């Protein structure tokens, strides 16, 4: 079968390929094993001589010495050597063993009979008779069986002919990674009446190719062409079958891979959905020494369900000029507001209703010990709106131009950023009164860090200045206004550590108290627009920040001190963190007017103490990991927000995870995720495969709404030589609607995957999920010897 190449990366001048590269029917593996087992051995260096036998002989040839050992060896005046009884011939990395062998020195022809074994490295071909010409690689093997270590698979054929060193032909050949069963045979097998392979031209041809699973033909091709090596070649990829989608019905996709050039390729995929009709998807990728990118298109000329044409577009590009200029583009668009519901997997946006459309460029300059970066960007958004659940459209930046300077001098660290923006809005709702306009801002800071190992202190002075011009008058009637706000901060901390023991384990315990002081005067900002302002999340990083807002438009007045401490337990031998616990709280020396809850300063806070933030994680027991963040309000003596998660992972492919999220007055959710074996046993009577069935899934339950919001559930069956997956997915697309999707996949180990692919869904949604054929994992044994 074919596998699609991995995404292009701008590190090489040709599109990189991996073990998932396109190989129609992967008969290329058969070709590689059969051809290289003999042909490539001619130029390999000679290996060490075998252990002494009854007799031995050595013949010199242009391709390297030939060593023959056997119980009986006879030589005819350097014309021929005949060997009988446990015969073994070695030349370079090639080893040939047989019961009887004749080697003609002048022609370098080898004739072998009995039990013939041809081996190169760990790849092996076994037959009853062989004839090989060592100098050209031509010859044949009768009744061969073969096994390739690289795929853990093999098969048999009636005859294999080696036509020179670069061509192979096989009759009645088959291929499988399943162990053979005398009664029922392998669970899956790929067979061909005739197989012709040309490695030099990267060309293969199979006649009468049939793929059988449980003795049932599932794919068949009268004549099939394919690449005979791992180099890319145009051809059909395995079909993608979607058994059920609640919005599209049954789906079928037939991708065709087009290898245009070493650094250009395309995939064209005709699609069929029973509820929508015929469509097409396309992807074009390119890779140059300093540029790379891809273009994806999806078109549905007539969507029967929607009664109109539907399409989407995604262009992504990165590049550079002489390692000085860097530029990129990321442009996504969709034909209509409901596109994200109907075709959620087509566009890659993390925010499916906000499609980014941006083009940017930057240039860096080295100025002694400082670095200057000049940049420019145009940032637009396509908002997929809903009349029942509208969202606020973000501002477009058209354009954004800036300079950023960073440097170090005499121990002083300095940063400066100045930027000009034009903010625009499109498709405004009738009640949206936000203004459009321009802003020029300047952010500058100078700090002097001292760090002695046992502690640190960093004083810092910063300035945030901005000038605004709006197209419509602000609340006070002005269209132009400016403000500048200075900030002084001091960040300091100590580091203590001591050695200790716990349960006989050598540990290092650390204690790190930290003090953060901020002084920022109050400036009235209630009349200023809010182009890009947002409140920072309250966490162990932001509690030590100078400003409770992100962006430029709001600077909170502050005369405050944050005091906290963190303690850790570290493994004395490896340095790995076993336990971390911390606490922090902010104290206000005066009332704060501009807060995260009231960014316009309309309701000043009279509280002097912030919520207490508690955070920690633990991996004291290797199989368990615990993480927790808790926010406690002393004013109401209750928890206002908490996130607690636990993961149990005793073995590969054994994962249980749970997360509890709570935000008072907003939401309360419980999330469960798992990958766990639920059944072990024989797949079918008489089969030599001992299978393991795994349950996989994730459920997100809203305790506030008393309903399941998103969920994934399914099973994976690993029979050793094949894996079956059935996964159902439910995604909420509104308060009272959801999309259901059923994915079914058959993975034939050593060959290909057939069906719809649930692997990305599982990896993205289940904490700790591992692919059953993950090369970094130690798989649970599933095949009986």
Automatic annotation (TrEMBL):
Residue stretches making up the LPS-assembly protein LptD central domain: 209-288
This protein's record includes keyword Membrane: yes
Record's keyword terms, sorted: Cell outer membrane, Membrane, Signal
Compartments where found: Cell outer membrane
Coiled-coil ranges per UniProt: none
Domain of life per record: Bacteria
LptD C-terminal domain mapped to chain residues: 310-667
Family (UniProt): Belongs to the LptD family.
Biological function: Together with LptE, is involved in the assembly of lipopolysaccharide (LPS) at the surface of the outer membrane.
HAMAP family recorded: LPS_assembly_LptD
Record-linked PANTHER family: LPS-ASSEMBLY PROTEIN, LPS-ASSEMBLY PROTEIN LPTD
Assembly: Component of the lipopolysaccharide transport and assembly complex. Interacts with LptE and LptA.
Protein name as it appears in the record: LPS-assembly protein LptD
Origin species: Ideonella margarita
């Amino acid at each position: 079968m074919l596998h699609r190449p991995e995404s292009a990366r701008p590190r090489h001048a040709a599109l990189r390929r991996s073990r998932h590269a396109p190989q129609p029917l992967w008969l290329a593996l058969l070709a590689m094993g059969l051809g290289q087992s003999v042909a490539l051995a001619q130029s390999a260096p000679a290996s060490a001589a075998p252990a002494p036998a009854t007799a031995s002989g050595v013949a010199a040839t242009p391709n390297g010495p030939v060593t023959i050992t056997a119980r009986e060896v006879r030589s005819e005046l350097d014309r021929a050597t005949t060997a009988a009884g446990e015969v073994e011939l070695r030349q370079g990395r090639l080893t040939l063993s047989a019961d009887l062998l004749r080697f003609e020195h002048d022609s370098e022809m080898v004739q072998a009979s009995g039990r013939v074994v041809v081996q190169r490295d760990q790849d092996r071909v076994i037959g009853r008779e062989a004839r090989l010409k060592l100098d050209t690689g031509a010859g044949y093997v009768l009744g061969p069986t073969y096994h390739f270590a690289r795929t853990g698979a093999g098969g048999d054929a009636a005859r294999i002919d080696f036509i020179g060193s670069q061509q192979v032909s096989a009759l009645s050949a088959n291929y499988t990674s399943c162990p053979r069963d005398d009664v029922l045979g392998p669970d899956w097998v790929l067979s061909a009446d005739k197989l012709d392979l040309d490695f030099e031209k990267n060309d293969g041809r199979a006649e009468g190719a049939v793929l059988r699973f449980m003795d049932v033909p599932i794919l068949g091709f009268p004549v099939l062409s394919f690449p005979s090596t791992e180099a890319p070649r145009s051809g059909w990829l395995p079909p993608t079958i979607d058994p059920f989608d609640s919005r599209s019905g049954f789906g079928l996709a037939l991708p065709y891979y087009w290898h245009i050039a070493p650094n250009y390729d395309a995939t064209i995929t005709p699609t069929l959905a029973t509820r929508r009709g015929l469509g097409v998807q396309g992807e074009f990728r390119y890779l140059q020494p300093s540029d790379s990118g891809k273009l994806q298109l999806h078109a549905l000329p007539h969507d029967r369900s929607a009664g109109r044409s539907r399409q989407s577009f995604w262009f992504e590009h990165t590049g550079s000029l002489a390692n000085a200029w860097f530029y990129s583009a990321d442009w996504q668009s969709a034909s209509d507001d409901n596109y994200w519901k109907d075709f959620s997997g087509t566009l890659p946006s993390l925010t499916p209703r906000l499609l980014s459309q941006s083009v940017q460029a930057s240039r860096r300059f080295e100025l002694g010990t400082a670095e200057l970066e000049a940049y420019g960007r145009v940032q637009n958004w396509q908002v997929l709106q809903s009349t029942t659940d509208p969202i606020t459209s973000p501002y477009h930046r058209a354009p954004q131009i800036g300079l950023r300077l960073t440097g170090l001098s005499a121990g002083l660290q300095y940063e400066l950023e100045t930027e000009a923006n034009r903010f625009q809005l499109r498709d405004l709702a009738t009640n949206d009164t936000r203004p459009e306009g321009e802003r020029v801002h300047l952010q500058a800071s100078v700090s002097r860090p001292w760090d002695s190992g046992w502690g640190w202190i960093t004083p810092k002075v910063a300035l945030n200045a901005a000038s605004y011009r709006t197209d419509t008058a602000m609340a006070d009637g002005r269209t132009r206004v400016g403000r500048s706000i200075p900030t002084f901060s001091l960040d300091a901390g100590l580091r203590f550590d001591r050695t200790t023991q716990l349960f006989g384990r050598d540990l290092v315990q650390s204690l790190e108290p930290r003090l953060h002081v901020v002084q920022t005067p109050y400036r009235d900002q209630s009349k200023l627009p809010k182009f890009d302002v947002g409140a920072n999340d309250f966490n162990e990083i932001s509690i030590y920040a100078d400003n409770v807002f992100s962006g430029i438009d709001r600077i909170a007045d502050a005369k405050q001190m944050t005091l906290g401490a963190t303690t850790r337990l570290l493994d004395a031998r490896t340095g790995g963190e076993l336990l971390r616990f911390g606490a922090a709280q902010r104290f206000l020396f005066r009332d704060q007017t501009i807060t995260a809850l009231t960014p316009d300063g309309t309701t000043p806070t009279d509280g002097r103490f912030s919520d207490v933030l508690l955070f920690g994680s633990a991996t004291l027991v290797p199989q368990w990991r615990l993480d927790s963040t808790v926010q406690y309000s002393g004013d109401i003596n209750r928890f206002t927000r908490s996130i607690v998660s636990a993961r149990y992972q005793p073995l590969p492919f054994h994962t249980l995870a749970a997360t509890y999220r709570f935000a008072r007055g907003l939401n309360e959710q419980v999330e469960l995720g798992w990958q766990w074996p639920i059944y072990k046993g024989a797949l079918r009577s008489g089969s030599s495969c001992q299978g393991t069935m795994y349950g996989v899934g994730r459920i997100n339950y809203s305790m506030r709404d008393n309903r399941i919001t998103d969920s994934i559930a399914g099973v994976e069956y690993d029979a050793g030589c094949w894996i079956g997956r059935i996964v159902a997915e439910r995604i909420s697309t509104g308060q009272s609607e959801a999309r259901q999707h059923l994915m079914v996949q058959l993975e034939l180990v050593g060959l290909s995957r057939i069906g719809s692919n649930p692997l990305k869904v599982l990896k993205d949604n289940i904490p700790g999920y591992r692919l059953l054929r993950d090369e970094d994992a130690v798989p649970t044994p599933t095949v009986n010897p």
